[in-house]
Every structure is written in C-alpha cells, then in structure tokens.
Amino acid sequence: MGAEARRMGREREWQAQRRPTRRSVAYAAGGRSEHAALARAPFLDLAAKRVFIRADLNVPLDAAGCITDATRIVATLPTIRYVLEHGGLPIVASHLGRPKGGPAPELSLRPVADYLRRALDVPVELAPNCVGDAVESLIARQRPGQVVVLENLRFHPEEEKNDLVFAERLARLADVYVDDAFGAAHRAHASTAGMARFFRDKAAGFLLRREVDVLQRLLVAPAPPFVAVLGGAKVSDKIGVLENLLGRVQAFCIGGAMAYTFLRAQGKPVGRSRVEADKVDLAAATLARAAARGVRILLPVDHLAADRAQAGATTRVVSADDFPANLFGVDIGPQTIDAFAQEIAAARTALWNGPMGIFEVDAFSRGTMAIAHALAESSGTMVVGGGDSVAALARAGLQSAVTHVSTGGGASLEFLEGRALPGLVALEDAAPAEHAAVPR
Ligand code: ADP
Ligand code: MG
C-alpha cells in the first residue's frame, strides 16, 4: 500500500471513531479538557485585537546561534497565520533554553523572529523584553498584519514561579489569549497558566488542540487492538503511562533499558545491562496487575549484547534466557523485532514512546528503526511521543508516515498518565479576574 493510501485509510478510521462523550473525556484527562479551540470559538473577534500567542518556540541552536531544527516554529505557524488572516496583531511569546533567571544574549528569540519574518513574509518586530513600558509602546505602534515577538520569557524568574504580578504584566499586552504551547502545557508558569485568568477571550491554538485531540483518542475509546510500545532510559519515566494505559491497551511491548528492570523482576539474567534496582518490585507488581487484567506484556526474547555500551563495541545476539554476565544489552534482538512488529501490524491503534536501544549508536539502532518502520507501514492510528523517539523517527525520515508526532515530550507523557495539565486547565477557567485586582 502506498503512503498516500495508508494516510487516507487512517483518516477514514479516524472519522469513523465515535466522538468521545463529555463525561468520558473528563474522565480520561483527569477531570478536564474540553476548552475552546481557536477556530471553534465564535465569540473570539480577532479583528484589530492584540492577540497574545503563547507558543513553544524552544528550538535548538548551534554555537553560532543558528536554528538547527525549526519543527516547533513550523508547527505553530497555522495559529499565527489564522490570527493575521482574521485581522489581529499576533504577539508571540515563548521561552528558549534555560537562562538562569536573567537576560542571556545567546538565548535571545532573535533567530526565531528572523525565521518568522521569512516564513510569514510580514513585518516582524522583536521586542526588547517581554514586559514593561518599552514593550507596551512598541505594541501600541504596530498595526494588524504585523507580528511582535516578545523576548525570552525566562529572562524573568517570575515566569517559572507563576508570579501573579508578572502574569498581569504579560496579560496587559493583549486583548485575547491563545495558548499553542503544548510542549509547555504541563508547566504552571505565568505565560502558560497564570496569565489566562485575566482574559475573557481565550482559546487553544491549532497545535495545542490537535495534540489534545489525538492523545485523548488514545485514552477514550481507542480502536482495538491498541498496543503501546514503550522503551527508553527509565522505568520511572514511563511507569505512570503504563499504569494509566493498563485498562486501555490489549498489549504492551517493552524494550530499551526499561526492559531490563522488568526482566530482572522475572528473575531473568541481564548481565551488566542498565537496571533500576529500586524499581524491580514496582515492575513485578505491574507485571502481576497486567496478568490479572489479561493484558499481555511482551518483553524481549533476545537482545543485541555488547562488550561496551559504545560505538566500536563487539556485539552478538543473545537469548533472554542466557544473557552473558559480562555484556550489556544495547538493543532488542531480531526475534523480538519480529514479535513487536507483528503486534504493531495487527494493531488499529499504537503508541510508541521510548527507543528500543541505544539508538544514538548506529550499530545499536536496528530495533528502534524497525519499530519506526513498522508504525509507518501500518494503516492504523499511530502516535509517536518522546523527544528521542521522535528524533529516531525523523532520522528514518518517517515523521509524515504516522498519524501524529507529538511536539511535547513531557507534556504528552503527563497527559497520557491521566494528569490534568495546568496549561489546559487555565484555558477552561471561565471567570476572568479583573486586571485592577492585582497590584501593579
Ligand atoms: P524518549 O525521549 O523518546 O521519551 P527516553 O528519553 O526515555 O526516550 O530514552 C532515550 C534514551 O534511552 C536514549 O538516550 C537511549 O540511548 C537510552 N536507551 C535505550 N535503550 C537503552 C539500553 N538498552 N541501555 C541504555 N540506555 C538505553
Ligand atoms: Mg528523552
């Protein structure tokens, strides 16, 4: 089947899925999640309005300050364009990197503003700061059809502290609040949570809405069979998702370093592979709960084992029952690849989060790449989350061959754990506070 036919099959499957009821949605997302989306918010009159767009423009920069991957900027362009097309003045805000509570010239949003100017082909001004008189007067001088980019929000420590006074200073810059920063939705910061209370007119941008829509479908009535392929570095990172999906999936495929903690829990030898000793009991309890519910957990039946967990190592395939004491598990083996790929091929819904091995080393990347290809070849709803998994998918050139690639690693994990994300909760908060209620 060609890629286009597969995509269309997926779209049809997508349409056919029952729209979740309000109650089931609320249950899935820990109580909340239905909020206004930009294009579905008829009360939002954007004409001549100053529209604050909180985006996730935290792009990687090289030593010369050039953007090495613009995916996050590209992903939020539809929201900025929508505001422009409806006569609003977009005021785009984001954090970038981890400045230590003060201005850091190397973490300026200037490269982002330059990128937006080229991508949108409209005048784009970079403000000297993200709050204050100079920013307010710059905004007052702009006209709809132009764009203002605020300087890095994290140049102010109040941003991450969700300081109310700072939130009000941000809110003062705009008439309408649009949150498109899914990647930051799990953080209760001034720009993602605190400032929303000052707006009557607020909505989710297209990117945020799509992320929530897709991830929600994994929690609410996913088309069975639903298989979750989990891997990566640590059990502790993924155990919350695993637990929350226990009642929703038919099977888990577990690879990566986290598999060794599960294998240890089963009493299997794992050599010198990475094991979280303090999580072995937790893994055993999870295995027992899954068995009680009739959920299958597939663990590796063979491994690629190496004498060093580094490039240039000597490797060989070993069976899971005979793991040599002196070797490291660095990837899943060929029989495991086949078993996991068959699960994915038979699934109508799959979630992949976490590489199957140390995929940064080419010689250890076969398992991870095989999972990426299995997802790409499926006609079901295939969702990929997690920074490293997304990077692996990109390395295989397969981003557009799956249903959805999440732009938010931490946020997508917390959403799938069933936690309420502060950024989403803030958008639903109906009663706007009075600006005047906060001291200036
Ligand atoms: P994601 O970002 O997709 O959520 P994680 O950050 O949890 O994934 O895990 C990715 C990391 O896990 C990679 O750096 C990879 O090298 C590491 N990893 C995967 N398998 C192993 C293994 N067998 N031993 C050690 N590290 C591993
Ligand atoms: Mg990672």
Average pLDDT confidence is 89
Strand order of the largest sheet: 3-4-2-1-5-6
Rg of Cα set: 23 Å
**What fraction, in percent, of the residue positions are helical?**
25-40%
- Principal-axis shape equals elongated
The largest sheet is: 6 strands, parallel
Number of alpha- plus pi-helical segments: 16
Bound molecules: adenosine-5'-diphosphate, magnesium ion
> How many strands?
15
Secondary-structure-derived class: alpha/beta
Distance between the termini: 61 Å
- Strand coverage percent: 5-15%
Low-confidence runs of at least 5 consecutive residues: 11-34, 431-440
At a glance:
The chain has 440 residues and is of the alpha/beta class. The protein contains 16 helices and 15 strands. Strand 14, helix 14 (387-395) and strand 15 form a beta-alpha-beta unit.
What attributes characterize this protein structure?
440 residues; alpha/beta; six-stranded parallel beta sheet; disordered C terminus; binds magnesium ion
